[in-house]
Write a structure and sequence with these properties.
The chain is α/β, with parallel strands linked by helices and 333 residues long. The chain is 48% helix and 15% strand.
């Protein structure tokens, strides 16, 4: 590396350290309310800072709603929670046209999707029409009501949850919609010490309230800084190899995985892994991406983008096992 490049990286690093000061404050405020679940908090920050949406999978009672509500409070952003049910209609989500008799004209009544943070609770309980309505908002950052299209205000983050156990009355998410989620995060139980802290906190007479740390404009500014995080070509090649290994495992010495994978990760996986790696470096207050950043976000970016064959399901193999084998096989730069 030349001295000129080295100076540039040092400048970027110094700038990112300055721009990311709020990250520790944000973590601290959320940590007052959310005991443990550091991975979930970091994943939410990664999604927020890289304009991505998050699919959370976990049992009820693991603070999924509380987490995004606390994040909205820390940013002073508008938050709406949507409980998805089989009888939900697209208009319940987006809004509708209402006839005004006095003016003898139709006026638009905007729905709850018009907020900065949306919690789509149990998204797999909604029928296909509602899921497709949400898809436009997620991908295009806009909503169409009648013949008028309304842009959604940034930052816009959808955090959807689904229960991995209860499958009665649910509609599997289409692959095209699942692929729109930048990250799929698996939420696990807290450990014993964290569980005791949760009990103490909930029995206390005064529950902690997260304070505002930044505002929405600061997040938009931070997103621009995330894009400036330096990523070497070798890291870019590493990401490409990981994604290609999910499509053509035999070329990477993983012949045994070929019958287990019905389809590999899409190009959107490569884009999202690069963006998520930059955002992860940013929340570590670093101005450049290292291979460990890629490995840290890899499972969340890929686990919902690798299709498992019937043979894999028969052997009870999960996508996380395939990702583990891929990371062990692909050479680290």
């Amino acid at each position: 590396m030349s001295s000129v490049e080295s100076i540039d990286i040092q400048e970027i690093n110094a700038k990112i350290q300055q721009e990311s000061v709020f990250v520790d404050q944000l973590r601290g405020e959320m940590g007052k309310v959310i005991i443990g679940q550091k991975h979930m908090i970091d994943s939410m920050l990664i999604g927020l800072l890289s304009s991505g949406h998050i699919l959370l999978e976990g049992l009820p009672g693991l603070a999924k709603t509380l987490a995004i509500k606390s994040l909205a409070s820390c940013i002073q952003a508008r938050f709406n929670r949507l409980q998805f049910t089989p009888d939900l209609l697209p208009a319940d989500l987006l809004g509708t046209m209402i006839y005004n008799q006095r003016e003898e004209a139709f006026t638009v009544k905007k729905g709850p999707i018009f907020a900065h943070f949306i919690l789509a609770d149990e998204i797999n309980r909604a029928p296909a029409k509602v899921q497709s309505a949400l898809l436009e908002a997620m991908q295009e950052r806009q909503v169409t009501i009648g013949d008028t299209t309304f842009p959604l205000e940034e930052p816009f983050l959808v955090m959807a949850t689904q229960n991995p156990i209860e499958q009665e009355g649910t509609y599997p998410l289409p692959e095209a919609q699942v692929d729109r989620f930048m990250l799929k995060v698996i939420i696990s139980y807290p450990d014993k010490d964290e569980e005791k802290q949760i009990i103490d906190q909930n029995l206390s007479s005064s529950a902690p309230i997260p304070q505002q740390v930044v505002d929405p404009q600061d997040i938009i500014k931070a997103r621009e800084a995330v894009r400036q995080v330096y990523m070497d070509e070798k890291i870019c090649g590493y990401i490409t190899d990981i994604v290609f290994a999910s499509r053509y495992p035999g070329e990477y010495g993983l012949k045994g995985l070929e019958p287990m994978i019905s389809f590999g990760a899409s190009p959107r996986a490569s884009i999202n892994m690069a963006l998520a790696s930059k955002a992860y470096a940013f929340i570590q207050r670093r101005g450049y991406v290292v291979p460990e950043d890629v490995r840290s976000v890899c499972y969340d970016v890929l686990r919902h983008r690798i299709g498992l064959s019937y043979e894999a399901e028969a052997e009870n193999m999960q996508s996380s096992h395939i990702i583990h084998d891929i990371l062990n096989a692909v050479e680290v730069p």
